Amino acid sequence: MKAFGINRNQLLIIIIFFVLILFGLSLRVPLNENYQLGIQRDHLTTQIAQLTATKHALSLQITNASSDKAVDDFARNNHMIKPGDVRIVAVSGGKPTPQPTPTPIPPLPAPENWEVWWALFFGK
User: What is the reported pTM?
Assistant: First the structure.
């Protein structure tokens, strides 16, 4: 096999080299898919952790909101009373507080005609 100046060992090495290149190229697709799936797994793991924390916080809020103290606080803040309570309404009695009357300010005298012209030409 000396047609192209290549002996048998060199031809075998070239064939093995091309087979290795084809094998490497065929591995590229699964490795890329594995990388993408790893990224998605990390994203979903983070999302699961966030949702778990949200679920825990919401269940804690539900527990707190359904407690007797929370119900009592809500009722008191909305002017509700418990059965057996006596509602007391504060009514201001007596004389109303007098409001001070403002003292009127006397009007300024109207300026003379010459004073208006003087201020116009000379200022002040």
Answer: 0.42
Spatial distance between the Cα atoms of 119 and 91, rounded to a whole number of angstroms: 60
pLDDT, one tens digit for every residue, the chain (124 residues): 455 677 888 889 989 999 998 888 888 888 888 889 999 999 999 999 999 999 999 999 999 888 888 888 888 888 788 788 787 777 766 677 778 888 888 888 888 888 888 888 887 6
